[in-house]
């Protein structure tokens, strides 16, 4: 049984993707547009957003820093004023830099928190009143947070990144409990390794690496199925899910054996 209303018809739907200049966000924007949606893309990279808007008839560029409260609220207001609603909000803005406790960097820790989690809070502050009004009027409303399998349990090199993604997973679960009874769909997206600018700097092997286009396909399939958690690729994520249930000692030993760290 689906946990959310299935989204199978995107024609005429207004979708706002935050963090959509590259990677998963950009690929999802392209596929939603191909499915008939009006797609508003936000990020700090103005040139990339304008390129998307120029190449897609129903694409709209709305440059924005997701950590700027006033900018986030102004962007949400711009969309509502123009379209009257936002059918889907996807927060995929993110920051990643590998870090271990033996080379602790407080500035990086705080930057991860500010972008990955703090930005999500600001977007929620800006859109929740609108989405609640839409749901009360029996209009579609869906929130989607891009987290990561790195949020399942602790992993080497993820000292800064992992805790922020664990926070988003937990945030999504609580949002679902609060908003699903009101008629608002909530989903959490947990990708494995995806070939994006964020992972380009990794010096370690990335098992089951997929392209942003493949990730976007899985996300849209998850929305169509009414899933709460959308995780992929299954050949990798199911293995990590199994590790979640190991006792601590067994888990730490398994991770050290598999990563060599």
Task: Provide a descriptive summary of the structure in words.
The longest helix is centred in the middle third of the chain and has 31 residues, at 106-136. It is built from 8 helices and 7 strands; from the N terminus they run βαβαβαβαβαβαβαα. 48% of the residues lie in helices and 13% in strands. It is globular. The chain has a single domain (14-259), classed as Rossmann fold (3-Layer(aba) Sandwich). Strands 3-2-1-4-5-6-7 form a 7-stranded parallel beta sheet, with helices on both faces. The chain is an alpha/beta fold and 261 residues long.
- Major sheet size, sense and barrel closure: 7 strands, parallel
Shape assignment: globular
What is the assigned CATH homologous superfamily?
NAD(P)-binding Rossmann-like Domain
Helix and strand sequence? EHEHEHEHEHEHEHH
- Helix tally? 8
Low-confidence stretches: none
Write the CATH architecture name.
3-Layer(aba) Sandwich
* Radius of gyration computed on alpha carbons: 18 Å
Strand order of the largest sheet: 3-2-1-4-5-6-7
CATH top level is: Alpha Beta
- Helix percent band: 40-55%
Mean pLDDT: 94
* CATH fold node name: Rossmann fold
- The share of residues in extended strands comes to 5-15%
Any idea how many domains? Answer: 1
Structural class: alpha/beta
Oligomer: single chain
Strand elements, count:
7
Distance between the termini: 40 Å
